[in-house]
């Protein structure tokens, strides 16, 4: 907890623009119309203030006005949606949605890192790492989305947003290869979210200390 003398006037978000965990946190905050002070972190030169709050220096980290710290991206998302949730993302976050998020975070993310940074994991080829990631999440996700446009059914829910940055990262490793795959439902789901103003807004390159303006509803 921060002392009253060091508390920021409103929520302060330590973030890194390309981090998938930070992206989903920013999307929830922007969607909820919450204005935050955005502190973009250089991962090779983490600010002392961040390290004082969190020795690991991981992002995202949200510092609330009362000094409470939210260090997990999902906790930030849940807090934001508790403030305002006009499209009912949270009520659609069922046990099935929670299972998808857990599958993404616990299983898919490590395999995605092996695929993205295959040179650091030479025991398998990039293609082998890619196949493992495909089987862990990408292919099952495509099959599920063939039955409904969103993981939450006919409308988007928290799980759709929580998985988006990671699927985007997978697609970006070899974009030509990904575009050529027979993943029609997943590719449509991905494109629909990437084309939205919400995603574009949170991916702007802010100067340090810039204010992230609330979404317009």
Question: Can you characterise this structure?
Answer:
The protein is α+β, with helices and mostly antiparallel strands and 217 residues long. The protein has two domains: 4-86 and 198-212, Glutaredoxin, CATH 3.40.30.10; 95-196, Up-down Bundle (Glutathione S-transferase Yfyf (Class Pi), Chain A, domain 2). Helices cover 50% and strands 7% of the residues. It has nine helices and five strands. The protein has helices at residues 20-31, 48-53, 73-83, 95-116, 126-145, 158-173, 175-179, 184-194, 197-202, and strands at residues 12-15, 36-40, 61-63, 69-70, 211-212. Strands 4-3-1-2-5 form a five-stranded mixed beta sheet. Helix 1 (20-31) links the parallel strand 1 and strand 2 (36-40). Helix 1 (20-31) runs antiparallel to helix 6 and helix 4 (95-116) runs parallel beside helix 6. The longest helix has 22 residues, at 95-116. It is globular and about 50 Å long. Mean pLDDT is 91; it is low at 1-8 and 209-217.
Task: Supply the key terms.
single chain, 217 residues, alpha+beta, Glutaredoxin, Glutathione S-transferase Yfyf (Class Pi), Chain A, domain 2, five-stranded mixed beta sheet, 9 helices, 5 strands, 50% helix, globular, disordered N terminus, disordered C terminus
Short description:
This protein is an alpha+beta fold and 217 residues long. The chain folds into two domains: 4-86 and 198-212, Glutaredoxin; 95-196, Up-down Bundle (Glutathione S-transferase Yfyf (Class Pi), Chain A, domain 2).
């Amino acid at each position: 907890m921060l002392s009253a003398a060091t508390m920021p006037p409103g929520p302060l978000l330590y973030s890194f623009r390309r981090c998938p965990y930070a992206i989903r946190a920013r999307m929830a905050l922007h969607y909820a119309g919450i204005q935050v002070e955005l502190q973009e972190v250089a991962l090779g030169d983490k600010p002392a203030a961040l390290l004082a709050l969190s020795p690991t220096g991981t992002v995202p980290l949200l510092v609330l006005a009362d000094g409470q710290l939210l260090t997990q991206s999902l906790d930030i998302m849940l807090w934001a949606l508790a403030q305002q949730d006009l499209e009912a993302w949270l009520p659609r976050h069922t046990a099935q949605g929670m299972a998808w998020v857990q599958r993404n975070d616990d299983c898919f993310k490590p395999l995605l890192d092996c695929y993205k940074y295959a040179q650091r994991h030479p025991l398998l080829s990039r293609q082998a790492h890619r196949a493992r990631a495909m089987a862990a999440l990408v292919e099952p996700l495509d099959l599920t989305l063939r039955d409904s446009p969103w993981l939450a059914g006919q409308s988007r829910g928290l799980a759709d947003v929580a998985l988006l940055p990671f699927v985007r990262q997978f697609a970006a490793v070899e974009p030509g290869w990904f575009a050529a795959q027979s993943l029609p439902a997943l590719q449509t789901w991905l494109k629909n979210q990437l084309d939205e103003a919400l995603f574009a807004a949170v991916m702007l390159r802010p100067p340090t200390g810039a204010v992230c303006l609330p979404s317009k509803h």
